[in-house]
Design goal:
By secondary structure, the chain is mainly beta. The protein has helices at 2-20, 126-129, 176-191, 321-328, and strands at 25-35, 38-49, 67-68, 71-77, 94-96, 99-102, 108-109, 112-116, 119-124, 140-142, 156-163, 213-217, 223-227, 235-236, 244-249, 253-270, 274-284, 296-299, 303-311, 316-320. The protein folds into three domains: 2-77, GMP Synthetase, Chain A, domain 3 (2-Layer Sandwich); 94-167 and 205-328, Thrombin, subunit H (Beta Barrel); 170-203, no CATH class. The chain is 14% helix and 39% strand.
Amino acid sequence: MAAEITDLKNILRENRYQLLTRANVVATGIGYKFSAGQKTPALSIICSVTQKLPSSKLSAREMIPSSIGGLPTDVVQTGVIRAFQSHTARYRPAPGGVSIGHKDITAGTLGCLVKKGGDFFILSNNHVLANSNAAQIGDAILQPGPYDGGRFPEDHIANLEAFIPISFTGGPSECTTAAGIANLLNSLAKAMGSDARLLAITTQAEDNLVDAAIARPLNPADVNDEILEIGPLSGVGTGELGMAIKKSGRTTALTTGEIQQVDVTANVQYGDNKIARFTDQLLAGAMSQGGDSGSAVLDSQNRLIGLLFAGSDTTTIINRIEHVFSALGVSR
């Protein structure tokens, strides 16, 4: 093994710079060759490329030879390799994947830019831009979010334009009539020596499809129609079972995963007492944490397929982007 690796190293040193001049090649190294998606025991010279293209679309000069110096090669798609950047810093222009938030929350993630009426808007979650229904249209949006040092007015990047209200259940009712009746009955129960107590509970009128909102930038030049560590979007797609996906978020930066379930109905907790039920969601594995809410979810071709909004230590829940676009009346 040691002698084989030494031979590979010598051959690679003689050829690496020439390989790096070929289209799409961004790195060279030594590793095990993959065949049909499975790792083999064969050591090879590996060329990492931004995009793996069929041979019919490559010139003879751009092709990676099947072997170099009698040793096999392999081509692996990695995308563009970038220096890691802080997702919690202040950006102008601000791309998707960075910290943002309503002036009264902690912080979430700027998803991406969308269009409405010919103008660009920032897309993220209701609970990121609209403080879980508590905001007013026109409220200040800060980048970075308040938890990451965002302050008004110096970090004021946008104003809340619109949000889709979230229908909650499972918490104390906000109805004063129901609460009054509960209090009266509790007083009677106490007078009669009963320990039983009533609590007015909100019942859910309808299931939710999205946790989504948009904000209008104060200056179009303050936002960037790309996503940090990913680059530009290539269009819009549809999330499918088994699809490879990725996201760039405020907390866990660039992560990848797979759609493990579709047609998901989930009870999502907001704070201590509020529960909201969401239907027709996508579910992936552990590719997010708190603060990643609002992240745009893309497929392997950088097509927008969803809006990340919730999860646990082992799961990530994603709104289908078609529901988001329909509810907000936006597009790409």
